[in-house]
Amino acid sequence: MADLLKSGASMLQETCPQCGTPLFRRGTETFCAKCNRPVVIIRNAEDESRLATGQILESTEQTILTKIQQLNVVLKSETDPARLLTYGRALKAWLEAIDNIRRLKARD
User: C-alpha angle 57/60/63, rounded to 5°?
Assistant: First the structure.
């Protein structure tokens, strides 16, 4: 912890919800030095809503990326033009969804 303070990090009065160690802030990042992970401090309902929305968007993006990976495997061996067209439409829709999700995340 002393090294963090020497490097310019600030010790906060809040503690880690996992281990109880004081949290640190460097720039805009708040983190637990003991757990070695970022921590989000929720001060009001708006912060909580923003965090929940961000987690849902991140989860949805990961699900879509998994589906794209699965589709890639199928595309490698597919030869039916009608199915390829259907898969292409699905791929286009998923990529547009990812683009929209990333734009929403960038706004916050």
Answer: 155
Q: Alpha carbon 90 to chain centroid distance?
A: 23
Residue 61, Cβ density class (10 Å: 0-12 exposed, 13-18 middle, ≥19 buried) = middle
The span from the CA of 33 to the CA of 13, in Å, is 14
- Per residue in 49-108, pLDDT tens? 877 888 899 999 999 999 999 999 999 999 999 999 999 999 999 999 999 999 998 886
Indicate yes or no: pTM above 0.70: no
Q: Which phi-psi region, left, alpha or beta, contains residue 21 (left: φ > 0; alpha: ψ -120 to 50)?
A: beta
